[in-house]
Amino acid sequence: MLELLVEKHQPEIILLQEIKCENSEFPEFYKTLNYNLEVNGQKGRHGVAILLKKDLTYKRIDFESQILNLESRINGVSFKNLNIVNVYVPNGNPVEDKKKFDFKLKWLNELKRIVESFINNYENLLVAGDFNVLENESDVKDFDKWKLDALGKIETREYFRKILEKGLFNIERLFNSPGTNYSFWDYQKASWERNYGLLIDHFLASPFIIQNTKSIFFDKEFRGLERPSDHIPVIIEIEKNLNI
After folding, report:
1. Is 12 a residue whose pLDDT tops 90?
2. Domains of the chain by start residue, with CATH
């Protein structure tokens, strides 16, 4: 699947979530594809990774946060003019499990603190990945059924907007109206066949990155492949003159 993504789009940087393996277990195919790897893995669950073309010069971002480091759900890289934070936000369900839902809110609040530190230092920032958040009511066809779910609950959406309020903008909203694109189709209930999707994967960017973003593309072809992921690749193109 990743080999096809590289062949089709030739991305400079690839953000992966829910890799479900320890660092040492990450498959080494990326080396033959001319990428370097930054990974924050965990045995059997969670885990995030960033693949970067070998000609890119970067530094790893370390996050000093007890909450964010409880599970392997975040990693980041820093370039000359850009910081990228890759996230896999806790799902939070079932909401009846107060501990799970509270952890999701605490995690989002801690991410807000990280975002604020970059913005206050006037640093360009891109935060992207699986947020497990339905930001807009049109990000699923029947939002009323999701009001009490951890993805659509008002508390979740409020915490998400607090992150945006620190100075970020959702790139998808720059190009398309809510309801235009989905990024996730469940394996259950023929969700793909009847196009019952959700938009829960987001790219949040600071103003200078927004000004230099040329496009966003949801590659639905990948969801129709044999044994697909339930998430599809979401690809943004940034101006080359950003000089990261």
Report:
1. yes
2. 2-242 (3.60.10.10)
